[in-house]
Amino acid sequence: MAIAKAERLMNLALCLLGTRRPLSKRELRDSIEAYVETVGPGQRAAGSDDSFNRMFERDKDDLRELGLVIETVESLDGEIGYLARRDSNRLPPITLDAEEAAALGLAAKVWQQARLAGAASGALQKLRAAGLPEDVDPYEAHSALEPRIPVHEAAFEPLMLACRDRRPVLFDYRKANAAQPGPRHVEPWALECWRGHWYLAGFDRDRGAERVFRLSRITGKVRSRGARFTAPVPDVVTVRETVASWAGETADRSARIRLRRGAGYPLRAKATGMRELGDGWDELEIPYGHGLDAWLVEFGPDVVVLEPAELRADVVDRLRAVAKG
């Protein structure tokens, strides 16, 4: 279905770009096979006209969202026609200096481990054909830097495409304190990497609010939904700030824990106070914010929460959920 739509949009774009005069809906319908197939041979029912009109309007809007400038022209007899002038849809010449080319090469290196590697490489080859300086090798610039953004989650690519196309998605998500995953119906806004993990920000339809999801906790396939977004997309999506607050980065209290000696070095780095307890254990005072319970669970039997009581209870609940799962 996706391939059929892409072919239909391509044929419509070629018709609008190739004509020297505005084409009416009737002419476009007779010229594009996918539109002809909306009715049977020799038929022109009112229902089929409505189906074609809806399909044509959607396709026209999709092409405009992709950047094609489509003009609407009314003839002397009142008939509406459409065309896309080549001069209105031609990109200006691409000129890049050495620093800009190096920046693009560095960006391409970042995605070498992701599914975007092929697209990034192809884009640079097209830029070179369009006039990238011959004495600049975008792949070798700043060769001392080897940045990587690892993308191991199968959910990354379908979510990236859904964010680009503004398509709602449905997936099963396992919360850190839940034994079994549950369904999530989300309007995806943005993907962002924070401390080696990918997160999706979007509007959770079932909860009627903004939510952030860690991709490694998405189970099964990501399914696309045909409906449009129901909530406005914010101009700025603060994925990192939201995750940081959940991870206790904005802590306003303190917690006391017991930590096995020789373990939990990230916790020791954050400690505001520490004393030896003996028997291979230390007592630490660490900042306490939302999400600290999920972080402490990752250290397993090397951590025991002393206080506050609600943090201890949250950690116990999470450990029980893991044991049941």
What does this structure look like?
This protein has 325 residues and is of the alpha+beta class. 37% of the residues lie in helices and 23% in strands. It has eleven helices and twelve strands. It has helices at 2-18, 25-31, 33-36, 46-65, 98-110, 117-129, 156-165, 239-246, 265-270, 292-297, 309-324; strands at 23-24, 71-74, 80-83, 169-173, 182-194, 197-204, 209-214, 218-224, 253-260, 273-278, 281-288, 303-307. The strands form three sheets. Strands 7-6-5-4-8 form a five-stranded antiparallel sheet. A four-stranded antiparallel sheet has the order 10-11-9-12. A three-stranded antiparallel sheet has the order 1-3-2. The two termini are 38 Å apart. The model has no long low-confidence stretch (mean pLDDT 79).
Summarize the topology:
Layout: H1 2-18, E1 23-24, H2 25-31, H3 33-36, H4 46-65, E2 71-74, E3 80-83, H5 98-110, H6 117-129, H7 156-165, E4 169-173, E5 182-194, E6 197-204, E7 209-214, E8 218-224, H8 239-246, E9 253-260, H9 265-270, E10 273-278, E11 281-288, H10 292-297, E12 303-307, H11 309-324
Antiparallel strand pairs: 1-3, 2-3, 4-5, 4-8, 5-6, 6-7, 9-11, 9-12, 10-11
Helix pairs in contact: 1-4, 5-6
Radius of gyration: 28 Å
Assess the beta-strand content as a share of residues: 15-25%
- Termini, distance in Å? 38 Å
- Shape assignment: elongated
How is the main sheet built? 5 strands, antiparallel
Mean pLDDT, to the nearest integer, reads 79
Number of DSSP E strands? 12
Strand order of the main beta sheet, please?
Answer: 7-6-5-4-8
Q: What structural class should be given to the helix and strand makeup? A: alpha+beta
Number of separate helices: 11
Regions with pLDDT < 50 over 5+ consecutive residues?
Answer: none
Strand and helix order: HEHHHEEHHHEEEEEHEHEEHEH
Please bin the fraction of helical residues: 25-40%
